[in-house]
From TrEMBL:
GO MF term set: antiporter activity; xenobiotic transmembrane transporter activity
Originating species: Ancylomarina subtilis
Annotated membrane topology: Multi-pass membrane protein
Keyword Cell membrane attributed: yes
Family matches, as InterPro entries: MATE_fam, MATE_MdtK, MdtK-like
Cellular localization per UniProt: Cell membrane
Protein name (record): Multidrug-efflux transporter
One GO term (biological process): monoatomic ion transport
GO cellular component: plasma membrane
Lineage of source species: Bacteria, Pseudomonadati, Bacteroidota, Bacteroidia, Marinilabiliales
Length: 463
């Protein structure tokens, strides 16, 4: 009886599992591709010299926060488009495209200016004097890639709102190859070109991102699957209210991602206060966890697409089922990936370091990471469900509470007050992410129940 009840329960979500996986796999592959090319980038720069690697690390830390804000901003597009598509408001879909393009372009210009202004103060950030000049030049070069990157993100998130994730995957994977080839040629001075070293890597990044934007523009204009939308977009009117709605939703989402990234950066700084070996082990485990995070991110992206579409169709019960189906999938993935990490906790760190102390500390961190991964998967999926319901302001407040009121103070207390040292910093992460998961979950339950009650009441009134 019990097994039959369990089987019946999961059969209820079967169609959602298939839909989420189908949408999520291209996103996962694209994200893993970007992580891989980032590792290869660092390997290529590292062979140029230690100074160049340090300069790239410094510049990329600044650039990463800027890109995280821009990426989060663009996430507002998907639920808005998905909701309009689910409600069969095709003229509104076309209007969202025009507003989205102007929104990402304006954000791209703003972020480019912000990056330039930050670069002027790099010598005030306590870095070695010989690192500043190459880091600043490299940052200036890659800052020109912000605008094409934002254009690409505009197309990508719009297409995800249409439940199309494969085009972005294909473009990203090809662009990664373009980046690697350009890096090899420009860094080392091949094909008769001068060796540019670190700057060559910057130009490689710029070229690959221009390629991404131009490719998406071409595919969107010429692709058969997008032809019906081209006709709709051509007749759609730009609406200033839609433009500001994207900004109103996009800025809180971007702020959530920046707060999360800042919390991890601050945990890295605190780790550096304890020991160099701890800092190295911390970076090793963050690198390992990034791989699994990309899997959870793929499921989260597909969740936003599915939830926003069902939300637009006013199929609230199905929307709730889609949300819980995503939670089931991410928990299953956490268990599978977690078991792999647990059994290989002493071997995985050896891929990054030969230092016995670093390996031992990393193995300890991985045990804590298994708990942190569960809550990380839950919070990103619950957050994506809320995003699909166009709920962004309260989750932003919850993110602030989880990271800056709970996670970082807990890590500090565990490490420095309770004497847990390096591993204490890591204990702050699952506590903070667990807080975010619980807050997001109750928010989802509350909003979905309210929407379901409204829908039932509306149906009864019609009858």
């Amino acid at each position: 009886m019990a097994s039959q009840a369990i089987r019946s329960y999961f059969q209820l979500y079967q169609s959602h599992y298939k839909g989420l996986i189908k949408l999520g796999i291209p996103v996962i592959l694209a994200q893993l591709g970007q992580v891989t090319v980032g590792v290869i980038d660092n390997m290529m720069i590292g062979h140029v010299g230690t100074l160049e690697l340090a300069a790239a690390s410094f510049a990329n830390t600044i650039f990463w926060l800027v890109i995280v804000l821009g990426t989060g901003f663009s996430y507002a597009i998907t639920p808005l488009v998905g909701k309009a598509r689910g409600n069969y408001e095709m003229n509104q879909v076309g209007a969202w495209f025009k507003s989205s393009m102007w929104a990402v372009l304006s954000m791209g210009v703003l972020l480019s200016l912000v990056t330039y202004m930050i670069s002027l103060f790099m010598d005030q950030m306590g870095q070695a004097a010989n690192v500043i000049l190459p880091a600043r030049t490299y940052l200036w070069i890659i800052s020109f890639s912000i605008l094409p990157m934002m254009v690409f993100m505009g197309y990508k998130q719009f297409c995800e709102g249409l439940a199309n994730t494969k085009v972005a995957m294909n473009i990203v994977l090809i662009a990664n190859l373009v980046n690697i080839i350009c890096n090899y040629i420009l860094i080392n001075g091949k094909l008769g070109l001068p060796a540019m070293g670190l700057n060559g890597a910057g130009y490689g990044t710029l070229i690959s991102r221009i390629f991404m934007a131009v490719s998406f523009f071409y595919v969107f204009r010429r692709g058969k699957s997008f032809k019906p939308y081209g006709e709709i977009i051509a007749t759609a009117q730009f609406a200033i209210n839609d433009f500001f709605k994207i900004w109103k939703m996009g800025v809180p989402i971007g702020a959530q991602l920046v707060m999360e990234a800042s919390a991890f950066m601050l945990s890295t700084i605190m780790m550096g206060w304890i020991s160099v070996a701890g800092l190295a082990a911390h970076q090793v485990v963050l690198s390992i966890s990034t791989i699994s995070f990309m899997v959870y991110l793929g499921i989260a992206s597909s969740t936003t697409i599915r939830v926003s579409s069902l939300f637009g169709e006013n199929k609230i019960e199905e929307m709730r089922q889609a949300g819980w189906a995503a939670i089931h999938l991410v928990v299953l993935m956490v268990i599978v990936i977690g078991l792999v990490f647990l059994f290989l906790r002493n071997q995985l760190p050896t891929l990054f370091s030969d230092d016995p102390l670093v390996i031992a500390l990393a193995a300890q961190f991985i045990v804590v990471m298994l708990i942190y991964q569960l809550f990380d998967g839950l919070q990103i999926v619950f957050g994506s469900i809320l995003r699909g319901m166009s709920d962004v302001n309260m989750p932003t407040l919850y993110t602030f509470i989880a990271y800056f009121i709970v996670s970082l103070p807990t890590g500090y207390l565990c490490a420095f007050t309770f004497g847990l040292k390096e591993v204490g910093i890591w204990w702050g992460l699952p506590v903070g992410l667990g807080t975010a998961s619980i807050l997001f979950m109750f928010r989802f339950i509350k909003l979905s129940k309210r929407k379901l009650t409204e829908e039932i009441s509306k149906t009864n009134n019609l009858n």
